[in-house]
Amino acid sequence: MPVYRRADLSRTIKLVVALCLTAVSTGVFAREFRAADTQNEDYPTVQALGYMGSLVSERSGGRHQIKVFHSRQLGEEKETLEQTRVGAIDLNRTNVALIGTMVPSMNVLAMPFLFRSIEHLQKVLDGPIGSELLNSFEPYGFVGLAFYDSGARSIYNSVRPIRSIDDLKGMRLRVQQSEQMSATIRALGAEPVELPYGQVLTGLSTKLIDGAENNWPSFVTTDHYKFAGFYTLTEHTMSPEVLVMSQKAWSSLTPQDQKIFREAALRSSRFMREKWRDLEEHSRKQAEDAGVRIITDIDRKPFEAAMAGIYAKAQRDPAMAGLIERIRKVE
Fold first, then answer.
1. Do residue 65 and residue 202 come from a single domain?
2. Are 57 and 65 in contact, with CB atoms under 8 Å apart?
3. Which pLDDT score, from 0 to 100, does residue 19 have?
4. Which of 65, 190, 247, 328 has the highest CB neighbour number within 10 Å of its CB?
5. How many Å apart are CA 229 and CA 158, to the nearest integer?
6. Per-residue pLDDT reduced to its tens digit, 31-46
7. Number of domains making up the chain
8. Which of the four pLDDT bands, split at 50, 70 and 90, describes residue 10?
9. pLDDT value at 71 more than 60
């Protein structure tokens, strides 16, 4: 049986400690990060998370992987956001209207009739304002990585065509679990019903609700169009999706790996934008082919005028008022 000298043991211990410190400093420890998305496997946001995962794996030399849990496998959005904030989930794709209940600056992106077009929205998100908004997450337990497109949200229902604001009176419409979205629908004369995304189909099929509001892909991929035959192009909000990371997961990364994650997220945003355009066109055609009546001849001015109280409340906050003004000035 070999006998080791004290000097040999000391050198061995020092070598092991040095190797461990090197591993920590260079970030060679592998880790699998969990990402949550409530949409189905083929949805552009889920595909974008998968694309981001492949970039992270490639650029980290296989040390880091992202496992995407789609189709509400980790829960509804509100639940997964709470889990992300405490670090139980590492990455989360959500809509700004919902996370606005936790990160107040996000509410500006869900303001009704704020954006003149999708192109206007993209210029805002791709410019200095978008960067500032992503940087506003950290005090609330998140790190903002990228925005994803979500198109324009419009009202659909099973009762009647909506051509004027009066047609909405008394109608029960599902909204996101957001005070601002409830206030928006209430200002239009309808009754908002806050429901998790996964419960909307049941609400429509059982007549618990008369309708809801969302974009074309969400309307079709969830089968809502089978129970709501009237789709009115109100396009009242263009609230985007946002990809966030928990502070806990972010702080576990080295600066080099943080750069890899941030760059991969931004590339996934551009990847998602192309996928989104295709799905949006396909979804509208699928709804039309199924017999959904699309109402385009609406008088939008009364809808916009009804938002005066929403804006008056928001603009009591000088920071919010300033953001709204800056967004309107973007050309």
1. no
2. yes
3. 38
4. 190
5. 5
6. 999 999 999 999 999 9
7. 2
8. low
9. yes
Which of 235, 193, 234, 197 lies closest to 218, judged by CA? 197
Q: Hey, what are 65's tokens?
A: 């992987």
Same domain, 312 and 172: yes
Cite the DSSP H helix spans in 60-108.
77-86, 96-99
Q: Are residues 289 and 166 both part of a single domain? A: yes
Distance CA 140, CA 101 (A): 11
Q: Is the CB of residue 94 less than 8 Å from the CB of residue 241?
A: yes
Confidence of residue 6 (pLDDT cuts 50, 70, 90): low
**Three-class secondary structure of residue 325 per DSSP:** helix
The answer to whether the Cα torsion of 222, 226, 227, 230 is positive or negative is positive
- Domain assignment of residue 139, given as a range: 6-95+119-148+241-279
Q: State whether 289 and 224 are in the same domain.
A: yes
Instruction: Using the CB atoms, write b or e for 26-60: b if 16+ within 10 Å.
Output: ebeeeeebbbbbbbeeebbbbbbbbbbbebbbebb
Q: What is the CATH number of the domain that holds 39?
A: 3.40.190.170
271 vs 17 pLDDT, higher one: 271
Residue with tokens 């049986």: 1
Specify whether 234 is located in the same domain as 249. no
Mean pLDDT of the 221-249 span? 98
The predicted-structure confidence for 103-131, as pLDDT tens digits, reads as follows 999 999 999 999 999 999 999 999 999 99
